[in-house]
Amino acid sequence: MEQKCVIPVMFKEVYSKIRFGNERWNQLNASNDLLYKFDANSTYIKSPPYFDQMTPTLPKIKSIVNARVLLNLGDSVTTDHISPAGSIARNSPAAKYLIEKGIAPSAFNSYGSRSIFDASEVYRREGTPLIILSGKDYGCGSSRDWAAKGPYLLGVRAVIAES
């Protein structure tokens, strides 16, 4: 059945035109640079800092000494809980930051509820590494990479989970 319905010429026709777009697409003003140039003043898209110190060779694994537990979680903390998906409360630190940048509350959009951000910043300033303790199924969901990237940005150096 697949042989009759999925015909290679269909793909060739569609993908032969993919670089040409349509009239509206072709009118977009875009850079030809290979890398995206992040706007340092943007309140919407920021350069992810986990690439700032990246080198071609892996750094040596260091012991985690005198760490503090940032989160002690139960079972089934999914990526929906971890990822930046919830509404930004108008009285949150994120809201204060955006208001200081001249952003109207109607344009806040969303983020993962993280009242823990303030605590992680205190530990970051002190140079204290952080860990997460979790039950079963930590980080399950569609954005599993965020279960590592988000906490890493908060200073978490290890997650100890039951599964």
UniProtKB/TrEMBL annotation:
Q: Which Pfam family is one of those matched by this entry?
A: Aconitase_C
Write down what this protein is called. Aconitase A/isopropylmalate dehydratase small subunit swivel domain-containing protein
Ranges for the Aconitase A/isopropylmalate dehydratase small subunit swivel domain?
Answer: 113-163
Naturally occurring in which organism (per UniProt): Medioppia subpectinata
- Which classification does the entry list for the species? Eukaryota, Metazoa, Ecdysozoa, Arthropoda, Chelicerata
Which InterPro entries has this protein been placed in? Aconitase/3IPM_dehydase_swvl, Aconitase/IRP2, AconitaseA/IPMdHydase_ssu_swvl
- Superkingdom is Eukaryota
